[in-house]
């Protein structure tokens, strides 16, 4: 299981990095999204891979860490998902504005010399 | 502890006064009263501190700042610091009084007094500092405020240039000083001044001694305008005269002297000290005095004379002799008094006649007799005429020069001759200053009719000149105790016997003094014709132009050199920058991990679930596909990206993270729609167009290698991390306390809205800012001409095609709304919460866009996103603030359960209200982004180019 997920993180991250170095703005958006999946999974995997034990307590007591998934990476990732969404939206609009202003979709605002 | 109060007040008062003065209205009188009162009060504080010190205590305040790094805010007052602080605040007070009459009401007066007071505070902070770093901080503050003061007349080019030059030289030296202080602190192991002063032998024998010495002296010599850094001082004369009188007599330029004297016990006493400082001091002394003779501007003459006197003090300090040290401190005080009064006299002449040019001035003795007498006495003190303070310290200087000349080196040998020559020059320029302006025939050729200044403008000069005379006649009775305390605090038990008397018998120094007076008079007589001929420039030294050299260095550094470096090392191409970032990150990670060996841990692996493996085979394929298709098939890339997102979402479900899965799913939906909305504005791209050349292939291959390396690295680190046991973190605490203290069973939600509520508040603020930015950016959106037209897919009425789905979507809205509310309410105990609910509700709106089209929704939508956002933020902040009314820290939550009978128990934690705020903001922000994006298509259709500058929707209006 560990190997499968590590490979998944690597593939997502690698695809994202490849797209980051591409010249078109749209490629960058897709790349950033892929990279954020990869990073989110990485943070998530800090809590390892418990099955069937979500961090939802029985009312009235303190939770035993052995019975529940680690809630901390989960809340970190939840925050990261929302912020990632905001970044994607912002970047999309910057992309549109740059396209309108420069007439192209190259990241430098002009085609390479 | 009144002692500590005096110290803190002495440093703080001027800064407070500066702030108040800044806010006062333009009226010379008010600011002057304030500044005068502050300066006087500061002086009182210093004197009180001095008196408690004279009573045997040493006032000291220590406020820890970063004690782990040895950084404390320390103020301490010993005799030397007290003497300097008295000069700074005392002369500061006189300057304020003088400036009250000098400054024109047309100048921005509040700024003037604010800067002056702030400068005074910086000087006091520096002289009272008990910590090296803090000393450098105040040192740089004095550079900064002197820059502002010199450039006070911003509309005058000379003032701006002079200010910039002063700042470049003194602040640059300050950087060297900072480095030197760090080295010194490293040698000693402490930045505390008292500790440093007690470790003289350690410092002098340390291998880094020479490094520290050179760096610190660079700071001191630039500040004190020593050759070859002297050129900034004459250009700083573009400042208003009160500023010149203050900066160049008692304060700014004396800071370097102060520092050298302060560190004298630990840095001096070596050959290096003598051989660096003695030649510099000697050259500065002679050069300054020589150039001063040939200045036609009274202030320039005084400026060069200041340079010369500073050289004299540096020379005295360099001699490594205790008696010379006494002479240096004494001369510092004397110079401050007579030079300040001379500057003020020059200012009075400038003020009352309209010129400072000695060639034009003549015979002012007739019209301004009082000022003439005062200037005469002060200039005589500068020349070293007996019965004035300058004479006594100059005699000490001669004595020291003679003592030093018994040493075998040539450098020591020439000191008496050089001292006599410099004194001859000093007499000459003093004579020129007085004779040129006040004697000779009265002239009518002046911009204004000269007359005596207002009486109170003369008072500061009178006080200073009176001091010169009293000290000159009765030195031991007046300045004696202060000088003694000051010198003792530097030399300690090694303080030598010295005699502060006017008459020491007919000895060699007296002969030298008489020789200087006679020689100076003779020289003035010989040069008289040349000087009055009005020739600019200094004979024999016309090639020596510090300003031009400075300008050339500046041009080289800031233009040619910078350009070359930028051309060779810089790139403005984003791709290259990102490539570098990725490569550097990869290298940094590799280099950090390699020494430890990056290998798998020893944790037993969990068996691979085939479902997960298949899922991730699909997810990975989707990711690679998205990366491959993003250039030519954008739609396919968006779909494939969504595929990866869904697999991620399923992974969250699989491994016990329902909250994450829910949020991820909703975010996926919204992101996909937003991306689709953006797609149509991009240029068309055809697969066949120019992708085949060799260079492009090479570039792609290189990027592929980088990407594979980065991905491999990520996978390796992940694997290494996953195969090790996770450290015991704070998660246990969260699990244990979620119900007991947060009142919720959904621990993730409790963490978000309660334990880490402050983070969440920051996060929703960011989300709100992003939404507003999107809105603002799209207000001025200009689509490219080729994307303005209606796309093929929108020709005709889309509603006819999607009739059944559209009706279904519309009917779904209330159901979605109900689900959103349900998610919100149960969020504290079960998966859900404000984020999920907000996104859910905005998906409801989004579906309406799909069903009805942008125009239909805009006609029917009754949502005001800005209001939702502000209400959300207010709710979140309000819930947090409410806790403070109950005496709890910000964002502490309160909870209870309400029993709703058959409906079950409703958790009523105050955190739920916070979550409601999160919900409102997330909903408002998402809908605002959505509306703004969707509106573009409506706008571009409605208006043919040029597009109208209208708001994208009725979003902003209430």
TrEMBL record, chain A:
The chain crosses the membrane at residues 26-44, 76-98. Coiled coil: none annotated. It comes from the Bacteria. It is found in: Cell membrane. The keyword Cell membrane applies. Keywords: Cell membrane, Membrane, Transmembrane, Transmembrane helix. Its main location: membrane. It is a multi-pass membrane protein. Pfam families: Oxidored_q2. InterPro entries: CPA3_antiporter_subunitC, NUOK/Mnh_C1-like. The keyword RNA-binding does not apply. Belongs to the CPA3 antiporters (TC 2.A.63) subunit C family. This is Na+/H+ antiporter subunit C. It comes from Roseococcus pinisoli.
From TrEMBL, chain B:
The keyword Transmembrane applies. The chain crosses the membrane at residues 6-25, 32-53, 73-99, 111-130, 136-153, 165-188, 208-233, 245-267, 273-294, 301-319, 325-349, 370-392, 412-431, 463-483, 503-524, 578-598, 610-628, 635-655, 661-683, 704-722, 764-781, 802-825, 831-852, 864-886, 906-933. Residues 621-684 form the MrpA C-terminal/MbhD domain. Coiled coil: none annotated. Residues 805-927 form the Na+/H+ antiporter MnhB subunit-related protein domain. Residues 129-408 form the NADH:quinone oxidoreductase/Mrp antiporter transmembrane domain. It is found in: Cell membrane; Membrane. Keywords: Antiport, Cell membrane, Ion transport, Membrane, Transmembrane, Transmembrane helix, Transport. Pfam families: MbhD (PF13244), MbhE (PF20501), MnhB (PF04039), Proton_antipo_M (PF00361), Proton_antipo_N (PF00662). Residues 699-795 form the MrpA C-terminal/MbhE domain. Residues 68-113 form the NADH-Ubiquinone oxidoreductase (complex I) chain 5 N-terminal domain. It comes from the Bacteria. It is a multi-pass membrane protein. PANTHER family: NA(+)/H(+) ANTIPORTER SUBUNIT (PTHR43373), NA(+)_H(+) ANTIPORTER SUBUNIT A (PTHR43373:SF1). This is Monovalent cation/H+ antiporter subunit A.
